[in-house]
Request: fold
Amino acid sequence: MNGAEITVSVEALRKTFEAPDGGAVAAVDGISMTVRAGELTALVGPDGAGKTTLMRMIAGLLKIDAGSLRVLGLDVAADPQSVQDRISYMPQRFGLYEDLSVQENLDLYADLHGVPQQERRDRFARMLEMTDMARFTERPAGKLSGGMKQKLGLACTLVRSPDLLLLDEPSVGVDPLSRRDLWKIVQQLVDEEHLSVIVSTAYMDEAERCAQVFVMNRGRLLAEGAPETLRTRAQGLTFTATPSEGMPARELQARLIDAPDRIIDAVPSGGSVRFIRQPETDDARLRDLLHDAPIEPRPEELEDAFMMLLRQEEAEVATALTDQPASEPASAQADQDKPVIVVRDLVRKFGDFTAVASTSFDVARGEIFGLLGPNGAGKTTTFRMLCGLLPATSGHLEVAGLNLRTARAAARGRIGYVSQKFALYGNLSVRENLEFFGGAYGLRGKRLKTRVAASLEQFGLDPSAQSGILPAGYKQRLAMATGLIHQPDILFLDEPTSGIDPLARRAFWRTITALAGGGVTIIITTHFMEEAEYCDRIAIQDAGRVLALGTPRDVRQQAGDAGVMDMNSAFIAIVEQGRAKHDAKEAAA
Amino acid sequence: MSASGFATRLIALTRKETRQMLRDRSNLIVGLLLPVVLILLFGYGLSFDVKDARVTVVLEDSSPTARNAVAGMRGSPYLAPAWATSMAEAEQMIRAGQTDAILRVPGDFSRRLAAGDAQLQLLLNGVDSNTAATIEGYVSGALAIPAQQQADRAGNKPSGVASVVVVQRMWFNEAGESTWYLVPGLVVLVMTLIGAFLTSLLVAREWERGTLESLFVTPVRPLELVLAKLAPYIVIGAIDLAMCLLAARYLFDVPMRGSLWVIILASLLYLMVSLGLGLFISATTRNQFAASQMALLTSFMPAMMLSGFVFDLRNVPVVIQVVSKVLPATHFMGLIKTLFMAGDYWPDILRDCAILALYAVVLIAATRRSLKKKLD
Reply:
């Protein structure tokens, strides 16, 4: 490795793209940085920070507009092929050949990298063991689950030991279990082979494992350093507040996050609220806000420092948007106590495969109900049955008091649906989209007009903006606005927060909690386990079965003893216990 | 190291492309089944020949002379004459589409024939002008036979009327069979379809699925990507070519007057052009849908309409003539028809092959350039 200690050295690097509206956007805007060899380096930052662009430039896949970039001592612009011969790169969406088998994918990459046969045998055996895929070598890559695909992608990039490994958001859209496995593999290679790794991530717990962290936002470098050093920015400002008995943590969290003059950030966690106070604010004003909720200092984490950095940026760029949606469902306030959703022994089979096995639960009016589970657990199937998009094989399903078997159309009029992908018309304006979806839900005339106007105001949207070119956070708002245009009783959200940055996510959840406060029932799926803390109740599904059902606190208790456990570990524990139990039963049978 | 690396990677990529091709059923259907359908369709289903054309003969003059004049109608395999008693009846039939033409023998035919200025009236259904023109030819031919016989019988007796007889011979396609020129054209269509249409999806699919991004950051070179993508489709193209040639020879009895190896060589050369065009479109559009539309519009449609397959290019406006000259299909179409029906005519073979080779090289080089391992 040339004996050089530095793998990547970047100086005043710039890359601009043409924006959708015709202007120029600097995706990487004058970044300078030095990455050391033999250790894990993290690039963190919200969506659109420029992480992927930077990664691609390091991989020699993009032209450089200005500045210099040396990788492994080589000038990337002058000789990208020499760099590409020595590095391995896993893009966000690793390009597996879905019609080739696991083994054929591995063989292809080994051949392309010129890995000798004898070396290959050992390497493959090790990779297959680490990814736990030795059983699936003959299976087409397209038939693997999302998490497995990601692991195979990693294995393909690691068919030989590269001089530098680039991982672009390897854990996006991957469930906690697969995420843990991915990191185990990377960590092992760093420990054993002193691999140099640059990883971009939106997860702070992943950045915390790295020796060096670069925080990026809007194409610039906000901060850099070891996690321990970066963390100290939040020193003395981090606390945990415990809400009084019977009060949901999210209510307290909502109160705190609505006071940006005193509070930098607040999130519900383990039944309490973790928050960062503004350094300038005095104790009396803080106590006003907290009422009698007792607070306790807690050790600062990288996430806290990250949120502080982002908030500062945000304050400089634009004043934060305060959306305080006041929405009430159109239906009468009657039968308050009756559950809005009743699910009894719900089963869905696709041929021989049971996607959802005998599932039962109720959801009360105004409740936030979270559906969690690893990739392929049956969440989406359950979800689609609840929305009436997919008929159930057997079981009873009641939504807003209507049986989905007999009154599917009527039930659909009472629910709103926000899909995972942006499912609006990109070339229509915001107003046109709202009017179209309002019309589709049967609103017309004056009522449609007032609803569109109210939605525009509620979500702070510009009616004439073209929908397709809105920033991700605003697309999310527009999707919510269309889902709510007919004032449904129930709102279904399918992984609404994947791909939006932490600040937008806070704002999103603030809207959700406000809606729930107004009586709208929310059913949501998510990959971010910490978001489960906003829910009143959650269900954890795996392999079609419900493994845990209850408040976040119940679920944490079911997972293990102490309440200190975070949702992520609770989730992993429950899924693993469930699988072990299932395997034991299989073995006995 | 470098040479062996090239070989290893090329083999690995070719193996991958072959597997992908074999596992994609729709690809195989288009690649192997569609040519069979086209061969059968063009060979059996499509024909510009008119057989058993329905001609209604109205004999207003029923004298033996008149009967004798139209007797040739009966002997022709191309004509199926029917007889009507009145013109009104015949006109009714042509309106109802029950007949294609009316041959009217006027009441004064015998009289005027004796006087030397006899006339017959031929009314054609011009809705399909091509068919009408063909029938006109058949009828004239059929009527010429008794006239000829009469002239022969008259011997060198001066008849008072000077008669010039045109002796017609169609060269290269003696029987005027349309299959003879449709089938060589079919080779062009099949090569175009396999080449441009199938390959147009190849690179675009990799762009869409993000597989190229992963592939780029390996020691792989752009030329290796291009060659590996071409290889399996050259095999498919060769199979299709063999099918076309066998069908031409044994099913449709089309003559192959040129050398077989020149026909094969020229076809493979055109296959390369076509594959190159498909890959180039695919690599530059980066979108499967757009690429397949583009491929259809820029290769298959022009090969059908503008290459001289059906329409004689000398009759089209100058602008379209220029466009057609730019199309590689036009050059191959001319070449393959000559090779099938006229034989080896070297000046043409050399010129057209040189043009095709130039196209192939330019397109493959352009594809290689468009895969230069950059995302922007």
About this structure: The radius of gyration of chain A is 25 Å. The longest strand of chain A covers residues 6-18.
